[in-house]
Specification:
Chain lengths: 110, 253, 119
């Protein structure tokens, strides 16, 4: 039960994330060379405005995109509907945003 | 004689229970036998109480669609030899519609959605106005010409998993009708149609899984028609008076 | 009604439906993985030693395989999504789009595998 607004939001966040996902995949391949460590990750990201904006945008888009996607699945496969469905979507989006924001903060400015 | 008979398992519904009960019939095999012939043989020679629906028997009326081995098909144009698995076949009422009795489903939800998608004629001219010219070679007209071949058989509606999971969803046939009218120079319902297909049960629910297009017996392409609606509603979303102007431009041409 | 379920399954055996279910399941799994991913990264402030212990695990084969799975899910969901948007928005024929999606997905995986082996 997607209306036009949710559909547009889902597509816009998708388009926004496409290049971010590509960069993320490249970083993953690059970063796992010789194993991962906290120091290595922080060395790359700590205090960096660019990575803060990159991951900040990423988690906002991902939270919205996941919330709308899970909403559709909850409706079609589980049968959740009405106000409960909206609450579910908002809860998913907000939870992912808060957890994501905390993680971005942890690896950049904390 | 067993090789000359087909084991036909019929899934029979009733108005009172959601469960279908199965019954298997041995039906004599003939050359050039359709699925509808097989069902008719059962009704005429084995169980006169078997309810099913058909009319024209030549693929025009769209009333004989059933699930045949899990696939929605027009039974009058489906040769039994094409669908037999080890000389057996399973026939069930169309999916996604309430069963009235045996193989006959209630088509009301299907046609109600047809109307809900604004699949009705929107006229702006009277008998005193001149008849609008149709540019038969135009892209718009070709889209409309394809869509009007729909026979309302509900095969696409039965094939679609989104319809199965979403009671509000208008479904492929109704949305394709909306797309057809949107492309028809003689129809003036653009605003109404776009509003109807942008709502809760509208075209944006479609996940492009393509079962409508794969199973349409007339080889129409509802999935692409729905994609067309998505594009038009998006143009409108981005403040497009432009698309309206294009349609009128085509009408004048 | 096992027989009826078997029958229903048949109506889905075509590439577009498989692409749809792949996109949905990969998206669902990614959404379920995200909270874990975020929580582990947050350990950089809450529990740096714990994070290092977890990151050491990434050297094991099992975790490497899980990582490969996640890369696969992410890539397949992204290309599946681009495929959907191409299908909806671009006036190409269906077979052209399927071909393009297939070619880009396959070449991407070959490139990724090559890259993973090279490093």
């Amino acid at each position: 039960m997607l209306d036009l607004r949710l559909y547009m939001l889902q597509r816009i966040t998708a388009l926004l994330m496409a290049p971010l996902v590509l960069v993320h995949l490249i970083i993953m391949i690059y970063a796992i060379q010789g194993g991962l460590s906290t120091a290595e990750i922080l060395g790359r990201t700590q205090g960096s405005l660019i990575w803060f904006l990159f991951y900040g945008t990423f988690i906002i888009a991902a939270a919205i995109h996941s919330a709308i996607g899970l909403r559709t699945i909850a409706f079609e496969w589980i049968g959740i509907k009405g106000p409960l469905l909206t609450v579910f979507m908002l809860a998913v989006g907000l939870t992912l945003f808060l957890l994501g924001a905390r993680a971005v903060w942890a690896v950049t400015y904390a | 004689m067993s090789s000359n008979t087909i084991a036909v398992t019929v899934h029979r519904g009733s108005g009172t229970s959601k469960e279908l009960r199965t019954e298997t019939f041995d039906v004599p095999a003939y050359d050039n036998q359709t699925v509808l012939d097989v069902v008719s043989w059962i009704q005429q020679h084995a169980d006169p109480t078997l309810s099913y629906r058909f009319a024209c028997r030549v693929g025009m009326c769209g009333s004989c669609a059933m699930m045949v081995n899990g696939v929605p098909r027009w039974t009058c144009r489906t040769h039994i030899s094409k669908v037999l698995l080890d000389n057996t076949v399973e026939i069930a009422p169309l999916r996604n519609l309430p069963v009235i009795k045996d193989l006959a489903v209630d088509m009301d939800p299907f046609f109600d959605k047809w109307v809900a998608a604004e699949g009705v004629h929107h006229t702006a001219v009277t008998r005193d106005d001149p008849i609008r010219e149709i540019d038969t070679s135009g892209e718009s007209r070709q889209q409309a010409d394809a869509g009007i071949e729909c026979i309302n058989c509900s095969v696409c509606f039965a094939a679609c998993d989104t319809v199965a999971g979403n009671a509000d969803y208008l479904g492929p046939a109704a949305l394709q009708r909306a797309w057809t009218l949107l492309n028809d120079t003689k129809d003036d319902g653009r605003e109404k149609i776009l509003a109807a297909v942008s709502g809760k049960g509208g075209c944006h629910n479609c996940h492009s899984m393509g079962s409508c297009t794969v199973y349409c017996p007339n080889e129409l392409d509802p999935m692409s028609a729905i994609a067309g609606l998505k594009r038009e509603t998006m143009k409108q979303f981005f403040g497009g008076r432009k698309s309206t102007a294009t349609k009128q431009g085509q009408g004048d041409a | 009604m096992g027989g009826y379920l078997r029958m229903k399954a048949l109506a889905r055996s075509h590439p577009l439906w498989l692409a749809y279910i792949l996109h949905r399941v990969s998206g669902l799994l990614l959404a379920l993985f995200l909270p874990v991913h975020f929580w582990v990264l947050s350990m950089a402030i809450t529990n740096p030693q714990g994070l290092d212990t977890l990151l050491l695990l990434t050297d094991s084969v099992a975790v490497k395989l899980a990582e490969f799975g996640l890369v696969f899910l992410l890539a397949v969901h992204m290309f599946g999504g681009l495929r959907v948007m191409a299908l909806e928005w671009l006036p190409w024929t269906g077979s052209q789009k399927t071909l393009i999606a297939l070619v880009s997905a396959v070449s991407f995986f070959i490139a990724t595998l090559f890259f993973l082996r090279a490093v």
